[in-house]
């Protein structure tokens, strides 16, 4: 909220008098305290105007609270003149009642030049609504959140406010879009002694609130244990903060700072999410493995994932269920996720399909997607290709290695290569054979200008299909810089031999790790490579023998050699 100009104005208005007042012991520590001081300041402005006619401060605030609550129930933030009249708010009186009205309600011209009204900010509407509901319960023993509920009366004649708080907590948790979250924070905060003292300045007396704080705290703790991943769980921690309870957060914070997060109970991982969100830590990288990666942990740490730019969720025992959580982050209007790694999880085609739906969303900004060894098959290729090509402007890196795509899957993925601007594509160990290589080569030749890194290791290509791939390598618009782990036959392609000898390979990096390369292949390779172009060469895990090593030494001894790294 600190990024909202109107909230900054509200804070400045509330703090201005407090900072210059020598009698003020301390500044507000909660949001409710801040808004209470803001409201008191508005009543002081009215008194400075020396306006004493009409309603008292209490009456006007209750009328505004009634308006705020009823419009909040309807989902309205804009209302008309008739809505003000229904709450007995006199427009002429409002014009001179500086502070409580003119500083809290603003008038604008709506459609057809009709005058419409709104509170200066939604948070002010929520605060006044909570104040109205609170005072109605205390003074009239009416639960406006659950009108039919029977409210017991204590021996002193008061109604325990826990019944109102329970209704508010349940209502906030059951709402779809968090529209009652801030209302709930204000409502529980008003029962605090500090805020009761501030209310007394306006209403003239303190409320009698038997058994409120501890019972409300206990009820919220129980709800936190049952509430899962959504921001609703985070809001409950804000409510505890309004009530002055930091016990759970402090305990989790202690374990987190000591590095012993194994002691955090599964139901309290949402407390860690709250700790991280209110800390000064850089949350741009979310690495689930740091938190004993599992689906249950991801569910409760989802609010942290929502503020990340890079999500490392690989090898975390996740299933297709997690894709619903991740999809909700990818489609957020305010989301910033750019890199997602789900490799090594058992997502299967059903999970990939869920992800593919979110890739189509206009809000998705993903530039790197890694799905290596996630149980995907040919069936997952169609929805994935559809998702990527529906929103092709962002994705630059795609890793589908060690999935059983086969040739038919490669054919379905061709649209991605033709229509998108992929710079890195990894298809290692995907079961591709001649037809798959043919589809791949054709697609790459249709859009040769972007791809810079291509990994085709651990696939079985014939000489014919390799020659087709070489057409892409020789394309004048090709910008390929790294071709990872080509099968041995590729070395003997006459077209590739020409490519390796050309000026086009000045930045090319052959990586031939574990490609069954032997002495004869090493000799062919050395004869093809130009030593004055090559800077890096990877021949690891091959059996080139002494003869092959001898050939390599000739490359290294060349006076024109620029080789910097040899593996």
Automatic annotation (TrEMBL):
Broad class of the protein's primary localization: cytoplasm
Cross-referenced Gene3D superfamilies: Ribonuclease Inhibitor
Pfam families, per the entry: LRR_1, LRR_6, NLRC4_HD2, WHD_NOD2
Secretion signal, residue range per the UniProt entry: 1-16
Domain NACHT LRR and PYD, chain residue ranges per copy: 121-251
Keywords on record: ATP-binding, Cytoplasm, Leucine-rich repeat, Nucleotide-binding, Repeat, Signal
Record's subcellular location: Cytoplasm
Entry GO CC: cytoplasm
Any one GO MF annotation of this record: ATP binding
Limits of the NOD1/2 winged helix domain: 59-119
SMART domains membership: LRR_RI (SM00368)
InterPro entries recorded: Leu-rich_rpt (IPR001611), LRR_dom_sf (IPR032675), NLR (IPR051261), NLRP_HD2 (IPR041267), NOD1/2_WH (IPR041075)
Superkingdom of the organism of origin: Eukaryota
Protein name (database record): NACHT LRR and PYD domain-containing protein
Taxonomic source organism: Xiphophorus couchianus
């Amino acid at each position: 909220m600190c990024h909202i100009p109107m909230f900054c104005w509200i804070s400045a208005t509330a703090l201005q008098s407090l900072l210059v007042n020598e009698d003020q012991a301390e500044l507000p520590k909660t949001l409710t305290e801040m808004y209470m001081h803001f409201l008191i300041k508005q009543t002081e402005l009215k008194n400075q105007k020396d306006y004493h006619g009409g309603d008292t401060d209490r009456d006007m605030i209750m009328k505004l609270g009634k308006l705020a609550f009823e419009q909040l129930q309807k989902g309205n933030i804009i209302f008309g003149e008739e809505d003000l009249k229904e709450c007995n708010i006199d427009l002429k009186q409002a014009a001179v009642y500086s502070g409580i009205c003119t500083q809290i309600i603003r008038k604008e011209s709506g459609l057809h030049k009709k005058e419409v009204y709104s509170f200066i900010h939604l948070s002010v509407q929520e605060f006044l609504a909570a104040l109205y509901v609170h005072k109605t319960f205390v003074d009239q023993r009416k639960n406006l959140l659950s009108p039919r509920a029977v409210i017991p009366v204590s021996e002193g004649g008061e109604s325990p406010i826990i019944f109102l708080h329970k209704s508010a907590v349940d209502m906030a948790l059951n709402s779809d879009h968090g529209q009652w979250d801030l209302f709930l924070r204000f409502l529980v905060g008003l029962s605090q002694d500090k805020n009761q003292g501030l209310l007394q300045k306006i209403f003239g007396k303190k409320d009698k609130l038997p058994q409120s704080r501890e019972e409300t705290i206990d009820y919220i703790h129980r709800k936190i244990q049952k509430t899962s991943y959504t921001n609703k769980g985070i809001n409950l921690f804000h409510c505890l903060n309004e009530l002055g309870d930091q016990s759970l957060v402090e305990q989790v914070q202690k374990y987190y700072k000591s590095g012993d997060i194994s002691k955090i109970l599964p139901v309290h991982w949402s407390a860690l999410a709250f700790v991280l969100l209110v800390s000064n830590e850089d949350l741009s990288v979310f690495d689930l493995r740091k938190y004993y990666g599992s689906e249950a942990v991801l569910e409760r740490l989802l609010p942290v994932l929502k503020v990340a730019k890079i999500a490392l969720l690989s090898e975390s025992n996740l299933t297709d269920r997690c894709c619903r959580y991740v999809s909700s982050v990818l489609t957020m209007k305010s989301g910033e996720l750019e890199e997602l790694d789900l490799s090594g999880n058992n997502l299967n085609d059903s999970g990939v399909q869920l992800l593919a739906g979110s890739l189509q969303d206009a809000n998705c900004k993903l530039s790197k997607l890694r799905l290596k060894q996630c149980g995907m098959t040919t069936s997952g290729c169609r929805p994935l290709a559809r998702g990527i090509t529906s929103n092709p402007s962002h994705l630059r890196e795609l890793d589908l290695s060690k999935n059983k795509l086969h040739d038919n899957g490669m054919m379905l993925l061709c649209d991605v290569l033709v229509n998108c601007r992929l710079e890195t594509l990894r298809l290692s160990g995907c079961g591709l054979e001649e037809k798959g290589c043919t589809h791949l080569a054709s697609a790459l030749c249709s859009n040769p200008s972007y791809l810079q890194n291509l990994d085709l290791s651990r696939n079985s290509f014939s000489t014919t299909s390799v020659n087709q791939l070489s057409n892409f390598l020789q394309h004048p618009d090709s910008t390929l810089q790294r071709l990872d782990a080509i099968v041995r036959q590729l070395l003997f392609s006459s077209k590739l031999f020409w490519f390796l000898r050309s000026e086009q390979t000045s930045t090319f990096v052959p990586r031939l790790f574990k490609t069954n390369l032997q002495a004869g292949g090493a000799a062919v390779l050395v004869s093809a490579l130009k030593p004055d172009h090559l800077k890096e060469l990877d021949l690891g895990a091959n059996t080139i023998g002494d003869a092959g090593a001898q050939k390599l030494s000739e490359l290294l001894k060349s006076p024109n050699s620029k080789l910097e790294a040899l593996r």
